[in-house]
TrEMBL record:
Pfam families listed in its UniProt record: Arf
Name this polypeptide is given: ADP-ribosylation factor-related protein 1
UniProt cross-references to PANTHER family, sorted A to Z: ADP-RIBOSYLATION FACTOR-RELATED PROTEIN 1
Assembly with partners or alone: Interacts with SYS1.
Binding positions (Mg(2+)): 20, 45
GO cellular component terms, A-Z: Golgi apparatus; membrane
Function: Trans-Golgi-associated GTPase that regulates protein sorting. Controls the targeting of ARL1 and its effector to the trans-Golgi. Required for the lipidation of chylomicrons in the intestine and required for VLDL lipidation in the liver.
Cellular location(s): Golgi apparatus, trans-Golgi network
UniProt entry keywords in alphabetical sequence: Acetylation, Golgi apparatus, GTP-binding, Magnesium, Metal-binding, Nucleotide-binding
Main location group: Golgi
Upper taxonomic lineage: Eukaryota, Metazoa, Spiralia, Lophotrochozoa, Annelida
Biological process, per Gene Ontology: Golgi to plasma membrane protein transport; intracellular protein transport; protein localization to Golgi apparatus
GO-annotated molecular function: GTP binding; GTPase activity; metal ion binding
Source species of the chain: Owenia fusiformis (Polychaete worm)
Length: 177
C-alpha cells in the first residue's frame, strides 16, 4: 500500500507566543474543509497539542509543547524524534524577549537537535508597535552565532491572520524531505 513520508515537527516558544494559534492556522491552510477553532477560544498550551497536515506525499506531524518555564524541561524528551523545529517569538512582547532568547539558546545547544532544520517565527506582526522581523533578528543576534550547521530561516508572521504561514511550512517541508 502507498505510504506517506512522515516527519515530526516540534513547535516551541514561550507561553503566549502563539504556538497553538499557529498550529490551528497551519491546519486551516493545509487541510481541505478544516473547521478552525475560534481564535478567541484558544488558550495557552499546557501539555501537548498535536496536529497533522499532508502536502502531497509528505505528512507533517506537529507537536505543540507548553512553553511555561516548568514545562520547558519537557521539550528535550521530544528532540530525538524530531525532524524539524519551529520556534515562535511574540514580537509584541519586548519584556520577554530575553526570556525567549534564553529558552531558544538552551534548545539550539542540545546535541540531539544538531543539524535539524529550524524555522524561527517573529509572530504577531499584525500588531502595531510590535518589533519588526529585523528587530527580532537583532535581539537574537548572539544566539544566531550558536546555531551551528543547519538550515535556518527567520520569518515574520501573523498566526492570527495567516500571513507568512504558508511560506514557512513549505520551506520546512522541503528541508525535512
Ligand atoms: P501559546 O501559549 O504559544 O500556544 O499561544 P496561543 O496560541 O494560545 O496565543 C496566545 C495569545 O496570543 C492568544 O490570545 C492569541 O489569540 C494571541 N495571538 C497568537 N498569535 C497571534 C498573532 O499573530 N497576532 C495577534 N494579534 N495575536 C496573536
Amino acid at each position: 500500500m502507498f505510504k506517506k513520508d512522515e516527519y515530526f515537527v516540534l513547535i516551541l516558544g514561550l507561553d503566549n507566543a502563539g504556538k497553538t494559534t499557529y498550529l490551528e492556522q497551519t491546519k486551516t491552510k493545509f487541510t481541505k474543509n478544516y473547521k478552525a477553532m475560534n481564535p478567541a477560544k484558544i488558550t495557552t498550551t499546557v501539555g501537548l497539542n498535536i496536529g497533522k497536515i499532508d502536502i502531497g506525499p509528505v505528512r507533517l506531524n506537529f507537536w505543540d509543547l507548553g512553553g511555561q518555564e516548568e514545562l520547558q524541561s519537557l521539550w528535550d524528551k521530544y528532540y530525538a524524534e524530531s525532524h524539524g523545529v519551529i520556534y515562535i517569538i511574540d514580537s509584541s512582547d519586548r519584556e520577554r524577549v530575553d526570556e525567549s532568547k534564553e529558552a531558544f539558546e538552551k534548545m539550539i545547544q542540545s546535541e540531539v537537535l544538531l543539524g535539524v532544520p529550524l524555522l524561527v517565527l517573529a509572530n504577531k506582526q499584525d500588531l502595531k508597535n510590535c518589533m519588526s522581523t529585523s528587530e527580532v533578528k537583532q535581539a537574537f543576534h548572539d544566539s544566531a552565532q550558536k546555531i551551528g550547521k543547519r538550515d535556518c530561516k527567520v520569518l515574520g508572521v501573523s498566526a492570527l491572520n495567516g500571513d507568512g504561514v504558508h511560506e514557512g511550512i513549505e520551506w520546512l517541508k522541503q528541508c525535512v524531505e
